[in-house]
Amino acid sequence: MSIFEYNGSALVAMVGKNCFAIASDRRLGVQLQTIATDFQKIYKIHDKLFIGLAGLATDTQTLYQRLVFRHKLYQLREERDMKPETFASLVSALLYEKRFGPYFCQPVIAGLGDEDKPFICTMDSIGAKELAKDFVVAGTASESLYGACESMFKPDMEAEELFETISQALLSSVDRDCLSGWGGHVYLVTPTEVTERILKGRMD
Amino acid sequence: MSTMLLYVQIETQLIYNLKKRQMKKTTPWAQFTEYIQKNVALYQFRNGIPLTTAATANFTRGELATALPKIPYMVNIILAGYDKGTGPSLYYIDYIASLHKLDKAAFGYGSYFALSMMDRHYRRGMTVEEAIELVDKCITEIRSRLVIAPPNFVIKIVDKDGAREFAWRESIKDAPTA
């Protein structure tokens, strides 16, 4: 079994009209054994920038700590927050730094850039960026998430419809994956507010 | 005041847990916990304030994580502590340095039975007496269902008065030690 599938995860981000949503499952497992059902996989970098980290839990925690450190240094030096594009390049650089002994993570980055233009992007464990206009997925449930998102996504959705779509896509996908699930965590980000919601899901 | 208790268990040699306890300086988990304990003490000497349980958990994770790509410490840790203000807390840290705050945790082959017992009987806000009763249930289950069950168990308590040994559950008295 791959090291990427050791802890289990499902991550998805979607773009709507001047907004975006990023969602994850909440399971922390060790192979087939569930350790916790309140594990955090999506982290806030600043008010309009979020990163989700799928893959090996220990590496996601290490990588997150390094990213926070680098972002804080950037804030001190530049006296402003990072743009999502810049942050994606930072993540990519940090991952490629470890090209021959990588962090076993697949990040999903979602943010609002200049003039509140939504930006979403994913990467492999060595920092190869994959930019998308509609949605990105990552984690052990990525295959079923592709299917669910492909059939449920519509361009230019309003915030509330986007929330419904991403939640349904997540919940139906994790039911087909043994290693992720046990509820969901959804962030809905518009230019004016950030909404955080916890989803109840199948407990098996 | 803040007090802590480390329960550490090595990945493979669970059966010899008790015997190896006597040869403290030679086992990976004893070395690692001693290293953590001494560093926590050093911090208190230097700064005059003790590390909180959360800070200790994160420090421990950091040490495990930096060693991971070099020579990993093959130790799983359950860190329990009591802090004024925050109250009691329990941290799960496995040998690959995944850190998580939990209500109940177990490691090793016996964990399958202990976790099942705790899933069924654990409630938030149990009294010490109820908790000890549950721990005893877990021990009974491990002894009756686990083929390679270790003979002796220690129960320790961490609360506002500090960390202390509460009782032993021994099936072999004066076990010969190598």
TrEMBL record, chain A:
The keyword Iron does not apply. Its main location: cytoplasm. It holds the Pfam family Proteasome. It is found in: Cytoplasm; Nucleus. The keyword DNA repair does not apply. It comes from the Eukaryota. GO terms for cellular component: cytoplasm; nucleus; proteasome core complex, beta-subunit complex. Coiled coil: none annotated. GO terms for biological process: proteasome-mediated ubiquitin-dependent protein catabolic process. InterPro entries: Ntn_hydrolases_N (IPR029055), Proteasome_beta_3 (IPR033811), Proteasome_bsu_CS (IPR016050), Proteasome_sua/b (IPR001353), Proteasome_suB-type (IPR023333). Keywords: Cytoplasm, Nucleus, Proteasome. Component of the proteasome complex. Non-catalytic component of the proteasome, a multicatalytic proteinase complex which is characterized by its ability to cleave peptides with Arg, Phe, Tyr, Leu, and Glu adjacent to the leaving group at neutral or slightly basic pH. The proteasome has an ATP-dependent proteolytic activity. Belongs to the peptidase T1B family. This is Proteasome subunit beta. It comes from Sesamum alatum.
From TrEMBL, chain B:
It is found in: Cytoplasm; Nucleus. Coiled coil: none annotated. Keywords: Cytoplasm, Nucleus, Proteasome. Pfam families: Proteasome (PF00227). Its main location: cytoplasm. GO terms for biological process: proteasomal protein catabolic process. InterPro entries: Ntn_hydrolases_N, Proteasome_alpha, Proteasome_beta2, Proteasome_sua/b. One of its GO terms (cellular component) is nucleus. SUPFAM superfamilies: N-terminal nucleophile aminohydrolases (Ntn hydrolases). Belongs to the peptidase T1B family. PANTHER family: PROTEASOME SUBUNIT ALPHA/BETA (PTHR11599). Component of the proteasome complex. Component of the proteasome, a multicatalytic proteinase complex which is characterized by its ability to cleave peptides with Arg, Phe, Tyr, Leu, and Glu adjacent to the leaving group at neutral or slightly basic pH. The proteasome has an ATP-dependent proteolytic activity. This is Proteasome subunit beta. It comes from Sesamum alatum.
